[in-house]
Amino acid sequence: QVQLVESGGGLVQAGGSLRLSCAGSGIFFRLYAMGWYRQAPGKQRDPELVAVLTSGGSTNYADAVQGRFIISRDNAKNTVYLQMNGLKPEDTAVYYCKAAEQSAPYRTYWGQGTQVTVSS
Fold first, then answer.
1. Radius of gyration of the chain (CA)
2. Ordered per-residue pLDDT tens for the chain, 120 residues
3. Interacting residues of 108 by C-beta distance below 8 A, sequence separation 6+
4. How far apart are CA 102 and CA 54, in angstroms?
5. Which residue, 102, 81, 97, is CA-closest to 32?
6. What is the 8-class DSSP label of residue 56?
């Protein structure tokens, strides 16, 4: 059974920092691209990409978080992290972890989400 479990969300003041963690089980973690996505309150569209880190170490960040957020992974712990610095009220959202297999059959899995609230 595949599980992705996020933690580290919470309430923080603008300008503060949080570190999210996502622990995976039931998958060969090192073969997956790991990403963080978020869905702001009241938004009906699909979660938007925040950052992704491939198995080869390539990263991609949304323009809105470039230079403030850092994604990293520890394959020995089957865990991906998102260090969020300089948080802004517009970063308020539910943050989801996603695992995407990088070879056929390209399976994807999602965590349950963790709430991040940034107060002004």
1. 14
2. 999 999 999 999 999 999 999 999 999 999 999 999 999 988 777 899 999 999 999 999 999 999 999 999 999 999 999 999 999 999 999 999 999 999 999 999 999 999 999 999
3. 98, 99, 100, 101
4. 8
5. 102
6. T
Q: Is residue 63 exposed (0-12), middle (13-18) or buried (19+ Cβ within 10 Å)?
A: exposed
109's tokens? 């899995």
Task: Catalogue the E-assigned strands of the chain.
Answer: 3-7, 10-13, 18-25, 32-39, 48-53, 59-61, 69-74, 79-84, 93-101, 108-110, 114-119
Q: How far is Cα of residue 72 from the mean position of the Cα atoms in its chain?
A: 10
Phi, psi of 76 (to 5 degrees): -65, -25
